[in-house]
Write a structure and sequence with these properties.
The structure is a homodimer.
Chain A lengths: L9 E6 L10 H9 L2 E7 L5 H6 L8 E7 L9 H16 L4 E5 L9 H8 L4 E5 L4 H9 L10 E5 L4 H10 L2 E5 L5 H10 L6 E5 L7 E3 L13 E6 L4 H4 L3
Parallel strand pairs in A: 1-4, 1-5, 2-3, 2-4, 6-7
Antiparallel strand pairs in A: 7-10, 8-9, 8-10
Helix pairs in contact in A: 3-4
């Protein structure tokens, strides 16, 4: 018979959605109220955005693990950051405590959770709770039908080279070019060259308190944050015809 | 001064997510408890899937508008279906009643809500609440990191011709080929031809009670439902390297 010492905790990867705390799922909010341990990515210094979004759902009194990393758009964290976090989390799981890892947007879409998942899924019970991803949240804020009928949609990280971005744009009817930050000026120039600037819609910090929607031509590149995106919808897309 | 007759209702487009009622957002669930009128797409005969997903969140006593349409994968509903629904909804809004329209997944991603939005947004207050989309829900159920770092992601409707699907697959690192249904056998043959069958993961009815995950080669094409998808992750994708 299994004694209490054999009862290990469950690791939850929780998507907290794009920014509005009310865009957590009912499931993620319920698990947050119940999990005794909460982990989240955080910058070297200062507040974790994922924690800030989840804060209204935290019961208080939970153990917290801030996974501190240099959040530089140019570099990815060293593997040791995840090794260390995984070992702290594993200790809680071994002691029978469930651990919730907070993930901006969705856990498996450009999230750091997948690096913890890679380290812990083989030896622990893991459940992933999907979240609202920023491209759909951006479309909702813009009032912009994203894809209809047989439209193909691309999600394109802005750090890709121009030729990769152009190939994705060419293959798709609608595209979301994400994580603009310091790549904004180059992406805007590319859209100009491709004749797509008139079909492009910019939004920063979708659904957050400081959400910003601006015409592409007026944007000061230095002001563009990492969590911003451009939706490009070709005039020929079925979703473009919806509002005609 | 505005009298009560000037107070019109708000139209909410609510994403109900991929299937699990707990994957509604906190915001969608709260609005459902408060809206006196709820509308949803429904087949000619029988139950609405969107309503079934939202049912645990309905307070009871709400007015319901079933937008009946022939849900044939080969045909799209006649415009009159949406004209008629829009006029019923507009009457409630004019009378000051908020109306929630239920949308599978996300309202602006292949949803019928956008056709109501097109008819009503110009003359009414509309708010869209984004929802969890099926590709991320499928990835969570499969335990499959979808996109990492600079991976490009494509969402590809299976009804597109082979050359369009192949172009999207070629431009992207990870792809979700959605709405398989009667297109399954053709899509599987295409993946075989492209040498991608070994990188493909099939799931039907992700997060629903009858969710099914099967190896691609064993699937009987006639059994594949409309709400099913294949995730194809190229061996070279950054997300493929996460678990190595």
């Amino acid at each position: 018979m299994a004694g209490p010492e054999d009862v290990t905790g469950t690791l939850y990867g929780l998507g907290v959605g794009p920014g509005d705390p009310d865009l957590l799922t009912v499931k993620a909010a319920r698990l947050l109220r119940a999990c005794p341990v909460v982990a989240y990515p955080a910058p070297d210094q200062g507040e974790s955005l994922a924690r800030r979004i989840a804060a209204p759902h935290l019961p208080g009194g939970q153990v917290e693990i801030a996974i501190r990393m240099e959040l530089s758009p140019a570099r990815f964290p060293a593997p040791e950051v995840y090794d260390d976090a995984a070992s702290k989390i594993a200790a809680h799981l071994a002691a029978g405590r469930d651990v919730a890892v907070l993930c901006l947007g969705d856990p498996l879409l450009y999230g750091s959770f997948m690096y913890l998942f890679a380290r812990l899924a083989g030896s622990h019970v893991v459940e992933i709770v999907p979240g609202v991803a920023s491209p759909t949240a951006a479309a909702a804020a813009l009032g912009l039908p994203l894809a209809a009928r047989d439209d193909a949609l691309a999600v394109i990280p802005a750090q890709l080279p121009d030729e990769r971005i152009a190939a994705c744009l060419a293959a798709s009817d609608t595209s979301a070019i994400i994580k603009l930050g310091r790549h904004f000026a180059r992406v805007r120039a590319l859209l100009d060259t491709l004749g797509l600037a008139g079909s492009a819609h910019y939004i920063a910090h979708a659904t957050m308190a400081d959400q910003q929607i601006l015409p592409l031509a007026t944007i000061e590149p230095a002001s563009v944050p990492y969590f911003s995106l451009i939706i490009v919808r070709r005039p020929g897309a079925a979703a473009s015809a919806v509002l005609r």
